[in-house]
Amino acid sequence: MTEATMSPDDLDQFRSRCHAFLEEHAIGMHLDGDPDQRGERRLLSGKKFQQALTDAGLAGLTYPKEYGGQGLTKEHERIWREEYANFPNMTFELVISHGMCLPMLSEFGTHEQKTAFLADIISAATVWCQMFSEPGAGSDVASLQTKAVRDGDTWVLNGQKVWTTLAHVSDYGVVIARTDPSVVKHAGISMFIVPMDTPGIEVRAIHQIDGGMHFNEVFFTDVSIPLENILGEINNGWSMATSMLMYERVAIGSGATSGVQHERADQLIEEATKRGVIDQSVLRQKLMKLYAMETVQSLVSMRTRAEMQAGKTPGPGGSIGKLAGSNIMSYARDVSMELVGADSVAWEADAGGGWARAALTGLQSGIAGGTNEIQKNIIGDRVLGLPRDISVDRGVAFADLKVGTQTDFGSQ
To answer: Which domains are delineated in the chain?
Structure first.
């Protein structure tokens, strides 16, 4: 990323260029009533938008040109986000590829890995997923059982991941696996790049309560990948995973736009006006509270984005924005169901405007990217400096732990 100073006229011209592009291409997702249970149509729209963005020279603004970016400044990135905030989000399904995998590869990948992968991620020619959680390692990801064993010039992976968003349409995945069970659980983990079409990988859909199937189980059975597919240093995967989770929480908590946003409050204010109840004092107070909550979250997100643009890897402060977003979703859900009344249980969009489906979908915000409880622990421990909870596994080798889905690591 270049830090060359741009004149106000240059930046104004860039803003006009962004606005013109968005006017033409950010036209929203038109699903014609299709619930798009697997997210495939939304992903196709996002890829089409991103390819047009690439063709226009507006994709990967701050990434180096040699890796498929534009090599522009953080001011360009800020202007793009401000303009994008005024249009429908076309790249929601690319949040993992662009908000998590792309910055991780850019920060920790080798020159060869960046050359091989970054340009295609930026243009959405390839879609990536993140494989961390397991049936026995959700909030405590460091208890993961999936293992990677070196076999000559390959790594062989065996295990299971769960809650993997869009694994069924992803070309590559970033996975963490245990490479040394003889040390404490946080110390013997490594991170790998895995082509999702590798023999031995099986993806199974998880059926969600809202009717969607965005999430998946992923099974690895003797999956061989090249040695050079390790991301970062061997047995440094926990540090890498922590960085990626921080990027994830920023991506979830900050979104793809910038500036002060209050989209949910605006939507409910519009609905209350349409229903003729906007003058009810108690409802107005709740709508104003929601408006204020979203405004404060936007300000926190702007600060976090500014730190990232200054070259800092996201820190634990990203959990603040993520937790705030979850609290907002919960509060907005309660207000919306109170506002729309009987329509809040109407399942079909043409009957109730999709309020019931939206309410159920919003429940995942308190889980995805780490539960609310985990975010509070992170904020208390690493932001506020409060004492940590008692840990019964401190200093104990992973192979000696008794955890829920323990695998036999004796052969490793």
So the answer is: 8-127 (1.10.540.10), 130-238 (2.40.110.10), 241-383 (1.20.140.10)
